């Protein structure tokens, strides 16, 4: 029984895909997105959405100053589209080809994570096999896609991949019985792909991980440590990841024993007159700097904000709303000059509070504009900045500010002159923060779709990895020569070899990890998910 006509199914799917692609391309400028679902949609629905992909490709090519690899990719897809149009008109293409290709895309996306070359090669193999008249060979080609991808998957991804493949085979059966048209079968798979991907990310959080110790059932967004107090601090927002400020009124800073992970105290920086969502903390000496977002003070919206917790006395002294309103919620402390940098993703300003002189500089970001248009407020914003507490270089006396919304660059700022020195072009989608490895003279820049590694001295791009979605700033484990990157919406922590910059593994932890923290004192990695906060022992990790 047919539930939807082919024409309606196609145009409905085309409309949804166009809106989604347009949003990603224009609002966030996500050049890597074509390797995930956009390309797959073109192949599924008889390539009639090719113009969207082509425009997307040229956007990427322009931004990357003539990326030859992607130009070749665009030509290949154009040729494939033309070939399949001819084949389809001659009725050579079997009815199950499109749903099988839709199933194959789930496996193919893992090749896209590795490199563009692997993706094109595997894509061509699948398309050639689809032209064969023996369905057994076509099914074998589909299965091989998954078998080859199993090497790169964890157990949760394997489970969902197998389920999705079985579903695809059921739809093939329905197509052959003419209960569904191939457009309808492809439409079903098109809408189920995101659901399966959500399941892959969500499922690990529902089970107690066997590789880490959960020391609280509360989500922590960031961590820092005071070795002198033998204390680990964690930010617990007590509200969803989205911006529901009223639900964040009970957020707090949890203090735990660094060795035993037992709860020591609860520091309440929020009250009825000062509330919002605490996010990032930085420990230095006997002080904790706290970055907060969507803040309200005395019934007035103050936007991004910052606070300080001082432990120099018996009882911690909390200073709220430091500096002024709308001061910025992402933090970078400069220990060389005893200064705190603060920035917000909603404007171009970068604030610097010099503690020794007790002065505030508000003009640093004025030299780094990247205007962007908000489709929600229908207004032009002056810029967008993201700072990370490990984003400064002692050797070069520089700090690094990444562009978030509509951002493609990272700006290098002289810590003494407080002037921009150079700009590194990332082109990996909006950046979420930069991390400095002074010993190796490298800069790890995380963005929505992956991570890029630059040589700090020359500015040359050394390595680029395609990861999950929403990748947070990298943290470096110098003792074990590892680099960790949390992918919040993919529910994974990606592990890299610090020396070779090669990906070692992906740890399935569940949705939610943000700011990771590596403790040299306890040799642990701390992270939080929707299921709680965890400590991962780094001893013996390869």
Fold and architecture overview:
The chain is an alpha+beta fold and 542 residues long. The protein has 9 helices and 30 strands. The chain starts with 5 loop residues before the first helix and ends in a 5-residue tail after the last strand.
Largest sheet: 4 strands, antiparallel
**Global outline:** globular
Radius of gyration: 25 Å
Q: Strand percentage, roughly?
A: 25-35%
Q: Detail the poorly predicted runs.
A: 1-70
Whole-number average pLDDT? 76
Tell me the number of helical segments per DSSP (H or I, 4 or more residues long).
Answer: 9
Distance between the termini: 53 Å
Strand order of the largest sheet: 1-30-29-28
Structural class: alpha+beta
Number-wise, the strands total 30
Proportion of residues in helical segments? 25-40%
Could you give the topology of this structure?
Blueprint: H1 6-28, H2 38-44, H3 50-63, H4 68-89, H5 97-114, H6 116-130, H7 135-149, H8 155-176, H9 182-202, E1 213-216, E2 223-226, E3 231-236, E4 252-257, E5 263-267, E6 274-284, E7 287-297, E8 300-310, E9 317-319, E10 330-334, E11 339-343, E12 350-354, E13 359-361, E14 372-374, E15 379-381, E16 392-393, E17 398-402, E18 409-414, E19 420-425, E20 431-437, E21 442-447, E22 450-455, E23 461-466, E24 475-477, E25 482-487, E26 492-497, E27 503-508, E28 517-519, E29 524-529, E30 532-537
């Amino acid at each position: 029984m047919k539930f939807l006509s082919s024409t309606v199914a196609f145009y409905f799917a085309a409309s949804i895909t166009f809106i989604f692609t347009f949003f990603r391309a224009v609002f966030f400028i996500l050049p890597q997105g074509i390797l995930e679902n956009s390309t797959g949609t073109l192949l599924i629905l008889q390539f009639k959405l090719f113009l969207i992909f082509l425009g997307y490709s040229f956007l990427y090519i322009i931004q990357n100053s003539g990326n030859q690899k992607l130009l070749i990719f665009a030509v290949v897809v154009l040729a494939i589209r033309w070939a399949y149009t001819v084949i389809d008109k001659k009725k050579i293409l079997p009815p199950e080809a499109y749903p099988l290709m839709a199933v194959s895309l789930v496996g193919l996306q893992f090749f896209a994570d590795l490199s563009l070359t692997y993706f094109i090669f595997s894509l061509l193999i699948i398309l050639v096999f689809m032209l064969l008249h023996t369905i057994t060979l076509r099914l074998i080609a589909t299965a091989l896609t998954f078998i080859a991808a199993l090497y790169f998957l964890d157990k949760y991804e394997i489970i969902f991949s197998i389920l999705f493949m079985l579903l695809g085979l059921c739809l093939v059966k329905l197509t052959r019985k003419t209960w569904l048209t191939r457009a309808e079968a492809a439409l079903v798979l098109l809408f189920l792909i995101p659901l399966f991907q959500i399941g892959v990310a969500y499922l690990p959080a529902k089970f107690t991980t066997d590789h880490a110790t959960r020391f609280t059932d509360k989500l922590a967004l960031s961590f820092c440590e005071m070795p002198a107090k033998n204390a680990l601090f964690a930010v617990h927002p007590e509200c969803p990841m989205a911006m529901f400020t009223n639900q964040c009124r009970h957020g707090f800073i949890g203090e735990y024993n660094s060795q035993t992970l037992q709860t020591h105290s609860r520091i309440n920086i929020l009250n009825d007159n000062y509330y919002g969502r605490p996010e990032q903390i930085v420990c230095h000496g006997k002080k904790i700097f706290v970055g907060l977002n969507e803040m309200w003070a005395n019934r007035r919206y103050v936007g991004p904000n910052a606070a300080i917790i001082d432990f120099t006395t018996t009882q911690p002294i909390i200073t709220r709303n430091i500096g002024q309103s709308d001061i910025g919620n992402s933090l970078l402390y400069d220990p060389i000059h005893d200064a705190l940098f603060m920035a917000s993703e909603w404007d171009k300003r970068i604030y610097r509070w010099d503690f020794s002189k007790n002065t505030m500089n508000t003009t640093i970001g004025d030299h780094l504009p990247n205007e962007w248009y908000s489709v929600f407020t229908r207004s032009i914003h002056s810029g967008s900045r993201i700072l990370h507490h490990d984003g400064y270089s002692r050797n070069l006396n520089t700090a690094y500010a990444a562009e978030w919304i509509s951002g493609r660059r990272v700006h290098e700022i002289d810590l003494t002159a407080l002037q921009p020195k150079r700009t590194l072009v990332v082109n990996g989608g909006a950046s979420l923060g930069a991390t400095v490895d002074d010993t190796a003279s490298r800069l790890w820049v995380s963005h929505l779709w992956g991570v890029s590694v630059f040589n700090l001295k020359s500015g040359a791009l050394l390595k680029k990895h395609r990861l999950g979605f929403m990748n947070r700033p990298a943290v470096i484990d110098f003792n074990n020569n590892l680099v960790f990157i949390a992918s919040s919406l993919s529910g994974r922590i990606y592990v890299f070899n610090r020396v070779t910059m090669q990906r070692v593994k992906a740890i399935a932890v569940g949705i939610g990890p943000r700011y990771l923290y590596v403790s040299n004192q306890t040799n642990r990695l701390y992270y939080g998910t929707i299921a709680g906060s965890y400590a991962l022992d780094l001893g013996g990790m390869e």
